[in-house]
Every structure is written in C-alpha cells, then in structure tokens.
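Internal ticket #5521
Category: modeling
Description: The requester needs a full-assembly model to guide mutagenesis choices. All entity lines are attached below as received. Residue total reported by intake: 424.
Assigned to: D.W.
Attached entities:
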Amino acid sequence: MAFLNTVHLNAVQYTQNMSPDNHSGRHDRASITTTALRLLDDVGLPDLSMRRLATELGVQPSALYWHFANKQALLAAIADRILERVNTSRTRDGDVVAVAHSIRDALLAYRDGAEVVMSSYALGLGADRAHAALTTALTSTATATATATAQVSDRTAVLLQFILGHALLVQQRLHAESYGAAAPSADADPSAAIESTFDLGVRAFLMGLPTE
Amino acid sequence: MAFLNTVHLNAVQYTQNMSPDNHSGRHDRASITTTALRLLDDVGLPDLSMRRLATELGVQPSALYWHFANKQALLAAIADRILERVNTSRTRDGDVVAVAHSIRDALLAYRDGAEVVMSSYALGLGADRAHAALTTALTSTATATATATAQVSDRTAVLLQFILGHALLVQQRLHAESYGAAAPSADADPSAAIESTFDLGVRAFLMGLPTE
DNA sequence: ACCTGAACACCGTTCAAGT
DNA sequence: ACCTGAACACCGTTCAAGT
C-alpha cells in the first residue's frame, strides 16, 4: 500500500546543478525532459501539452521542435526517465518477483507513468530497461535454466504485459476516483485488494511455468 | 493468426434497418454509436473527433451533446458495443480459456478496440459484460469450486488486466508498424509469437491457481 | 546552435436560439 | 425533442527569420 501514498509526491532529482525552468540560458533534451516529467506529475498526461511545457520553460512552443522531432519523441524520453528507477541489482539472482515489483513501482511513481511507458513501449521505444531487467531475471530463474532464448522472450513479454496492464488500470482508477466516478468493484479496501491482485498475477505466472 | 487478418475489415452490423449516416431524420444514441464505431474502425481513435463524427452524421458538433454528456460517455457506449461480441455461451461450463479468447477477439475486432475498452473500464464503465463472463467462468471452474467470492473477484481482475494489456500492446504495435517504426523484438513470425504468448499467459495463470 | 513570430489546420465544450 | 450558429479556450506542427 505504501506506493499509493507516494504517488504524486515526487521530488524531482536534478541530474545537473541547474534549474529545471531555465529562464536565462538555453535548453537541451535532458533539462527539457526533467521539466516535462515534473509537469506530467503535476498536471497529468491529458494536460501535458507542448504549449504548456513551453510556457513552463519560458520559451515559444516551436522551440521544443528543435530538440524533439515531435511530442511522441518527448514522451519516449520521459518513459526512459521513469524506468531509470527500476532496480537492476536483484536481476542476476533471478528474483523475478522483486524485479516485477520494481518495474511496477517505477510506473506508479509518477502520475500517468504507466500510460506514458506503455504507449512508448508499443512503439518500440523507451521500455528497454524494464525489458532487459525482466529477461535477465527470467533467464537466471531456476525453472527456466533449460529454456530456449525464444521462450524467455515470450515470457518477458507476458510478464511485462501483465505489469503494464496492472499499473495502467491502477492509475486510471486513481484518476477516475479524483473525478468522483464510482468504481465497479465495491471492495472494502481497494488498495489492499490491488496489492494482492498484483502478487497473485505474478506468482500465478511463475508457478504456471513448465519445469521441464 | 486469423484474427490479425480480420482486423480493420469489419462489416458493421446494423441493429436497425436504418442508414447509419442518417442525413434526413434525427439521430439517437444507438445510431450515433453505430456510426462512431464504424468511424473508429476506419480512422482510429486519435482521429475520432466529435467534429469529424458530426460531419459524418451530417450534423453540427454541438448536436452530439444533446445525446451524450461528453466524449467519454460516447466512448463508453462504443466500448459496450465492442464487447457485445463476447461469446457468453461457454461461460457456464467454466471454459476460462475460451472466454479469454472471446474477449481478446472482441477487443481486436475493431481498430483501437482495446484502448477504448480499457479507458472505459478504468473509469468504471463499459466492461461489465467481459467482467461478468470471466467471473462466471472462473466461479464454475473445477479448481475454484471451493473458492470464496472475493478471491474470484481478484482473479477476474488479474485475467482481465492481462487480456487488456495484451490486446492493447498488439494493437499499438500494429499501429506502430503502419507508421514504419521498428519493433524492439526481431522475431521471425511476430503474429505467431503473439498468439502463443497469449495462450502462455492465460494457461500460466490457470495452472498457478491453488487447488485447495 | 537555439529560438521567435506567425501562421495552418485542427480540437472539446457551452449556450442561446431556432423548429 | 432535437438541432443550429457562434463563440471560448485550447491543441500539434511547420517554417521563414532572427541572434
């Protein structure tokens, strides 16, 4: 449940010692991405427009198109940033559950993070880090030691699909609740149900793997 | 693989013997939804605007707001229509795999169908039919006969998340390919890999269920 | 190298007024 | 009951021109 409390409460980490809204000097892809990620977390994806980001940066909208080919390219850079949080330290010992949780937490750490990453991933951009971490963990999993690379690739896709689908629904439900729409399931503790649902999904997947 | 060939090739089924683009008489929610679904399949979600739909109907954009409160309400009606294809005949004998395939096929039968249904489902609208079919099938499954209703609800959510996540990625990848973007996995036969990935996911889920 | 200014072709939504 | 006409407050993107 802890992840639900920290949503929307990110302190942006600056990679440079430079103000994100650089009203004096010029901008580059990194600083623009930093400001865009903070803006995403503040206002959400529907309100993250190129024009609004330009205003935030103290620049004309057209200036952004010198740094990024289009809005989708900007979103891919944001997706990369979001997944930098994925903890790759436990991938080597094959702790698939831990990696799945790390990816899930990275997606939920920023407002609409799952949607941004999913759309970029579908376009073949942005989710390389998550994909690689899962593949490494699955490859070194005990049940999969004698498994062909093609099958590992399939399993990575299955797990990533579940994680993305799960995070997407969680965040869209959060968004729906903030608009006062009624959720279909009338559970007593929805956040606990969500947490156990995620664990159930990941473990069901792992237990269902053939042990040949 | 058959489903991939029939994507984008829908002949719209008219529930009334009435032209969908009713340029003479007046419109109602049903006829507007029919035209909107055809337009969605023709041009895709990003190009399905209220203004374009109004033009298709031979009407001013503002006319649509007499029938639907806003665009989201229209999309929920479309989501309901898409899921009318879900085959509910096999839910009673607990064939979860068949139901999962039926939902998947319904989502893939219209362009961007998964995205429309997912966003509506997250808002608590539109996916009741899919949710109910899965719940019925899981309840009458052999491995779940002695399972509490709360657990069935969790499992329904897990499976639906996987199905929606899977269909969403498949369709976004189709969309990406039409724009010439390179997919990250360089598989020999991607459509066959997708099909087996889906089966793997559903079966892994079912085999992972406790048999208590 | 990086940005401005101005334009193009669009959006969703509201609301008085018509029939 | 159903729709028009007109407006409001926006979009993403391009491109010549500036520094």
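Resolution: model delivered.
Comment from assignee: The two ends of chain A are 36 Å apart (CA to CA).
Ticket closed.
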